[in-house]
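Board notes (copied after class):
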Amino acid sequence: MQVTHSVWNPGTAAASGDLLPTVIAIHGHGAHSQDLLGLAPYLANGRLLMICPEAEFMLQPGMPSYTWFEPSGPDLKRTPEEFERVNARVSAFISEALARYGGDPERTVLLGFSQGGSIAYRIGLGEPTRIAGVAALSTWLPEEAEAAAETGDALAALPVIVQHGTSDPAVGVERGQDSRDRLQALGVQLEYHEYEMQHQIGAESLTDLSAWCQRVLDLPPIE
């Protein structure tokens, strides 16, 4: 695989021979492949395979700080073509990583934080039968993902959870609310939460996220 990545493996597949319920966690601008890996022990009591790809472009030489899109043009913004290129790259990585690490393609959730959430939206809405759900954290719904969304029963059956901080200084809560409204118009199975936090994953949001993953991936409760 050509994409740098980090993996948390719960170590249960070898014993059972079963494919593992999986979270593909896509980090945000300025982070790296291990940025979200620390969530793994807390999601569904550490029973999920977590695979975290790393963005392609280093922001600061020698520092673990990466961004997904190569900016271009006079305003140094990503182009729609660059968005689709990165989407295809991450999409191909997901297929390869699931096969390599024993992830279950029928029980895989895409989790995206901030910039990574835009990619999770694009893949999830565009191929809703491919995944079990989308977790969009402190992010926004890009126009390309909305335009590429599949229509019909498959999209209507897709569980999506959106979590946003009311004091987020990086991606204002109004962008999360706008995403909520547009997702509702698309007809997905939407669960929307706001929390008293900034651009982060807090204790309360993590608890809700864990419960959602456990439900969407059809895991039994811990007795």
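Comment from the instructor: The chain has one domain: 5-216. Residues 67 and 140 are 16 Å apart (CA to CA).
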